[in-house]
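Case study: DUF1440 domain-containing protein.
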Amino acid sequence: MTTNGTPRDRSILKGALAGLLGGLAGAGAKVIAEQIFPPRVQGQTPPPVLFAEQLAGHPLSGAERQAAMQGVHWAFGALAGAVYGILIEYEPTLGAWKGAAFGIALNRITHESLLPKLGLAAPKGQQPTQERISEWVTHAVYGIATDAVRRAARSSL
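Here is what the predicted structure looks like once written out:
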């Protein structure tokens, strides 16, 4: 895609692929950021595990919990990145946000809205301040990494 974003340069497939690659990189960056600034206290069940347990219909074992957490984290990161890549194809001005706004918006949609409605997280007003700040920061890191890798991948496709 050229910098002018003309319609002949747009490609859903290339945008999705570049975004998917960016989303995987962003998911990795978020894992590292969470090591520095953890969102939950030790022993608190992460939303991906709660989601997997709801799907399974029973509590998961230790190995199953770890696999579920990793699987949901990486799959959601890749999927969100692919959606972002497609959006950028058709609205290139979104890229001016450099990904941080995307990551923060993703946090607001998931951790502050959707997850509480599904019973996978406490309502926004009941979430500990450290958890909310950590999620904002680590989702911004996710978004920045996603956008940077998406841009690099898209320019080479």
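For the exam, be able to explain this: The two ends are 9 Å apart (CA to CA).
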